[in-house]
Amino acid sequence: MPETTEFFGIAHQPRDPVAAAALDALHQLSQKAPIRGLSDKLIGIDPELRREIGPILEKYQKSEILQILVQILDKEPAIDTESGLRMLHQQVENAALDFKQRNAAVQILNAYGVRSNLKIGDYEYRETLQSGESYAIRAYDPNTNTDIVIKGDRSKLSQAVFNVLKTIDHPGITKFLGYQESGDQVLYYREYIEGQDLELLMQKVKRFTEKELVKWALQICDTLDLLHNHVPPVMVLDIKPANLIVSPQNQIVMVDFNIAQIYQPKKKYPVVGTEGYSPPEQYKGLPELRSDIYSLGATLHHLATRKDPRIEPPFSFNERPPRQLNPGLSQTFESVIMKALEFEIGKRFEDIQRMKAELLRCL
Predict the structure, then answer these.
(1) Beta strand segments in the chain, E
(2) Which one, of 111, 109, 35, 21, lies nearest residue 67 by Cα?
(3) What are the pLDDT digits (tens) for 150-201?
(4) What is the rounded distance in angstroms from the CA atom of residue 77 to the CA atom of residue 72?
(5) For the chain, how long is the longest CA-to-CA vector?
(6) What is the C-alpha radius of gyration for the chain, rounded to an integer number of angstroms?
(7) Could you tell me the pTM of the whole model?
(8) What share of the chain is helix, strand, coil (3-state, %, to 5)?
(9) Per-position DSSP letters for 222-285, written without gaps between them
C-alpha cells in the first residue's frame, strides 16, 4: 500500500484513523441516493485504502457536518479544495452543532489538512486525543490561559463522584472542572496533564527499575489513601497503566474515573472494569476499597514483568511470579505485589496504608 494517498490534491496518511474515518464516511455517503456527483470526486482514492478503512466511522454517516460537506462538493463540480474548505469552515461556525458533531467537524477538517481554530463552547480546539464511542479532545481555555481535556463517554462518570473529585486538590488526581449530561453520554472537563501514560511508556522503555516502580506505587498509595478515606469514600475501580500519567515532575496522576463509585458496604454495583486488572468480586458487582489494591497489584505486576494481564488467563498471577519473569526484583517487592493480588479479598492488605508500609521496606 502507498504511504500516502491524494484526495482533492491533499496528501493523506492512510493509517491515520481520523483521516481514514473521514474518507470512509464520505465514501459510504457517496453510495447513497439522492447524493450524486460525489462518487466521481472519490475516484482518485486508492481502492486498497477503501478496503482498509472499511466501516471505521459508520456512526458519522448521519452527521450534519458530513451532509454539509457533501452539499459543498455537489455544488462545486470542479471544487477548489482550499475555497471549499473555507466554505465548510464557515458553515460549521454558523451551524447549531452539539459537542459531538462539532468535534466530528474539526476532525474531518483536520483530515483534509486544515488546522482548524473552531470553537467548542468557550474553548478552542487543539487536538483529538481519543475517538470512537468514548472521545476526548484537548482544548484551550482562554479564561484561564490553560489547556483542558473535554471527554464524552457512555460510561457515565457519576455525578456524586464528580462532586467529590472537584473539591480535591492533590498532585495525584487530575483537577475536574465541569460536568454535563448530553443525551446518553456525559461530558466532563478536566485539566490537561503533560506527560505520558504508563502503557505508552512501557512501549518506549525496555524495563523500569524496582526503585522507579516502588516510588510510583507509593504515590498511587497516597492518592488511594486520600480517596478511600474521604467522606464519602471513593473506589476508583479502573487502575491500570493507561489511566496513569507520568508528569514531567515524575508524579503519577490518575486521569480516568469513568467507572469510579462512592463506596457503600454491601451495595450491589454495575459489573464494569478492565479484564485482567479487575478483582473477582468486581465481576460479581460487589467491589470494595480493597478492590483497588488488587488493581494496583495487577498494574505493578504488568509494569514489572511486561506480561499483559488482559491476554493471560483470568486470575492466574500466581502462575507468573514477578521474580520468575524479572529476576532483578527483590523478594520483598514480589511479596507486596502477590499479597495485593490475592484472589480472596480477606488475604489482601487490610487497607492501602498497610500496603504502603510494606512498599517502604523496598527502598
Answers:
(1) 5-7, 10-12, 119-120, 123-130, 135-141, 146-153, 176-182, 185-191, 196-197, 234-235, 244-246, 252-254, 261-262
(2) 35
(3) 888 777 788 999 999 999 999 999 999 998 876 667 888 999 999 999 999 9
(4) 9
(5) 72
(6) 24
(7) 0.74
(8) 45, 15, 40
(9) HHHHHHHTSSS-EE-----GGGEEE-TTS-EEE---TT-EE--TT--------TTTS-HHHHTT
Rounded Cα gap, residues 177 and 165, in angstroms: 9
**Residue 273 cell numbers, joined:** 472494569
d(CA 228, CA 230): 6
Copy the grid coordinates of residue 48.
486498497
Q: Please, what are the domains in the chain?
A: 5-97 (no CATH), 128-191 (3.30.200.20), 196-360 (1.10.510.10)
Supply 14's cell numbers. Answer: 492512510
Q: Which residues contact 37 (CB under 8 A, 6 or more apart)?
A: 73, 74, 77
307-334 pLDDT, tens digit per residue, is 999 999 999 999 999 999 999 999 999 9
The amino acid occupying position 64 is E
